[in-house]
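ARCHIVE CARD
Drawer: 12
Card no.: 0347
Subject: one protein chain, sequence and derived structure
Cross-reference: see card 0346
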Amino acid sequence: VTIYPAKLTLPEGDKATFFCNISMENDTGSEYSLNWYKETNHSQAQKTAGISRYKPMTETGKYRLINHTPVFEIEILNLHQNDSGSYFCGLITFFKPDKVTESKRSQLIVTAAPQRNATDKQEMEEGNPPEHIKAMLLGILLLAGVVVLLIFGYLTLMYRRGGMIPLEAMQIQCETWEKPPVVSISTVDYGVLEFQSDQHTPVPSKTRLVEQTEYATIIFPEEKPVTPERSKKHLDEQTRQLP
């Protein structure tokens, strides 16, 4: 019984694979089985797994043995540092009672898993966010889309029923409210008209046949928009002129 490779060095979390080769001089088809043993610190060997000649594969939580007669493949899964030690194969033949043929020892060394530095970890997180974050973002986007559709449908329904002003009209009305119109008020300025009497010799009233009519042209100043300050000032001037 031979085993290879003679030595393996692997990090935690990896898988170790060994091969045991069986060579029998007189193979008459007799029954036999292959056991897998572990030694730690040269202590007594402990059986960890086993497989019979006609069984294609056996698997436990830690070991998997695959039959490729006359070669048997042994896998140690999900390595931890306490898996380090010496391993060997033991062939048990039933036509030779109490006869166990052992292979040489193969050494397995399990090292600590490599640690990522902070930069690599940050780049990994930024480049590939966790699945639950992706699902949460997708859910938020879908919820926001549903809310927008509901609001749009509600506004459309109210507008068709005539219970709401269209958005464009509301916008125009808001702009109108923001800028109140300037009111123009017509005003009248009062003045005193003085008529100059004729310098000629007055004609006796008996000889004046037709009364003369005097005409005057009144020019009003240009109208200006009345501001609250100017309106108040104008009212004060009228109050002073009235007495």
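Annotation on reverse: The chain has four helices and eleven strands. The mean pLDDT is 75.
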